[in-house]
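Consider the following input, taken from an annotated entry for N-acetyltransferase domain-containing protein (Schistosoma mansoni).
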Amino acid sequence: MHLLREDDEDTNTFRVIQEQTTAMAFEWRRLTHKNFGYVYLLQNVPMWIDETVKVYKGDIGLLKAIGQACVVSNYRAEGYTNDFLASNFMTYHMTYKRVPRINNVQIELKSILYSHMRWERERSACESTDSTIIFRGYSTQQLQMFIISSSQVEYHVNNFKAEEGMEEVFILFNIHENRFSLPTMDNKPVLKVNKEQSTNQTNRE
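Applying the prediction step yields:
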């Protein structure tokens, strides 16, 4: 996503670089001021109050997600000074379409070679056109990739050669057009599993 600075189209430096499951990450370079205070990120909501996130310097990489998934939304980023009477020293305008999120991932390890994954997915207008990508494997092996329909919310994984004590790794994210949601990632040790079922849950809110 490219943003336009109001007075100079050649210095686009504030841009979305990735998403997180519940946050949007931004790259912020030239939005500087000797008395820099904070940035307001605002989503324009017609006929209603704009959604707003206030971002301080240390928080620039992790912002609350605003705007509905797969809906093109207009935003602006306003930089303010830390003076007693804060003033707006720079503004960017942007248009952005957010990728649906994945959360509440659960892994059921039924044997050392077989596991079952399930998750929840944010409903959106682009469900029929995107996919979910899974990378899964173990710490000492190359990860394998699986691409499935976004309509699926569970997946059976088997035929992995693993030994007790190895660490299982999984990466799960959505893709829509040329955009990705930031991966949900986790790892857990491979233990000896008998008849009892082992369940691991990863929450992303």
